[in-house]
């Protein structure tokens, strides 16, 4: 993926959402081999120490960054990149089930 984030400044901590990526893109990323995580509806305070890429199998989430007033919404079928250093609140209205991967080196690294 050609997503780049400069996490030196908290104002650059942007969440990237791709709606309904193609099956071929999901296969290329190897998403079905990634671990799964889920949570029930509720509000969760989260901090991302590494960049996370996730694909939501089900759910609906509104994310409010601690550093801005911007609210980002995503749900089932969305591919989401959460930048390293992001502190946020997840307001989960529909239980989440997702595949996820932490990228400790660079967004283009492959494992």
TrEMBL record:
Residues 26-100 form the (S)-ureidoglycine aminohydrolase cupin domain. CDD domains: cupin_TM1112-like. It holds the Pfam family Cupin_3. It comes from the Eukaryota. InterPro entries: RmlC-like_jellyroll, RmlC_Cupin_sf, UGlyAH_Cupin_dom. This is (S)-ureidoglycine aminohydrolase cupin domain-containing protein.
């Amino acid at each position: 993926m050609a997503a780049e984030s400069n996490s030196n400044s908290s104002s650059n901590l942007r969440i990237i959402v791709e709606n309904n990526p193609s099956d071929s893109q999901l296969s290329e990323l190897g998403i079905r081999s990634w671990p799964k995580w889920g949570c029930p509806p509720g509000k969760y305070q989260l901090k991302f120490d590494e960049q996370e890429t996730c694909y939501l199998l089900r759910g609906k989430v509104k994310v409010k960054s601690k550093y801005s007033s911007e609210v980002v919404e995503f749900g089932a079928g969305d591919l989401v990149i959460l930048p390293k250093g992001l502190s946020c609140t997840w307001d989960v209205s529909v239980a989440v089930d997702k595949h996820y991967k932490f990228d400790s080196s660079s967004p283009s690294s492959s494992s």
